[in-house]
DNA sequence: GTTGAGCGTT
């Protein structure tokens, strides 16, 4: 038993939980559809289809919350590989348990429109607009998984995107965010 | 009905 692997967060073999990830969905499968299917195995605590921010359409995967672990186990076994709305869906225990926690120090949410939009001056104080001030960090401590990844990869999505634009120098994460806000 | 493989910030 020297196999002490902290497989929490392993994508290949997630730990059983009441939260199931459902992938390969049709874009037209709704939460209602999922609820119909998965409620067969037991009472649900919630269903959450992930939508694309830009288009507002489904991204083709969802998360189903059961109330009992035994039910989620059964649902995982039975619903995995089943056909739904013409698609073979994949069901697994979810790695993440809830939506992403923002990277500390950088506002990762959508930019709130600053009333006008005349000059390029987004000079309003942003500190008060962070997720922390909205109380998001009270839900739980940082999710080990995405926190680690966001630190290893880059401080923010904007960073990796705009950082490479300048070959002579690197933009700061803050600067990248500003560029992103300007162009969006 | 723009697929693919996708682990989430409405």
Helix content: 25-40%
- Return the CATH architecture of the domain at 19-93: 2-Layer Sandwich
Largest sheet features: 4 strands, antiparallel
As a percent range, the share of strand residues is: 15-25%
Distance between the termini: 52 Å
Major sheet strand order: 2-3-1-6
* Overall outline: globular
Key structural traits:
Alpha-Beta Plaits; 184 residues; two-stranded antiparallel ribbon; 5 helices; alpha+beta; 26% helix; 16% strand; DNA-binding; four-stranded antiparallel beta sheet; globular
Word description of this protein:
With 184 residues, the chain is an alpha+beta fold. The chain has a domain at 19-93: RRM (RNA recognition motif) domain (Alpha-Beta Plaits). The chain is 26% helix and 16% strand. The chain contains five helices and six strands; from the N terminus they run βαββαβββααα. The chain has helices at 31-38, 69-79, 144-153, 157-163, 173-183; strands spanning 19-23, 44-51, 58-66, 83-84, 87-88, 90-93. The strands form two sheets. The chain has a four-stranded antiparallel β-sheet, with helices on one face. Helix 4 (157-163) packs across helix 5. The protein starts with 18 loop residues before the first strand and ends with a helix. Mean pLDDT is 68; it is low at 109-170. Sequence-specific RNA-binding protein which participates in the control of pre-mRNA splicing. It comes from Amphilophus citrinellus.
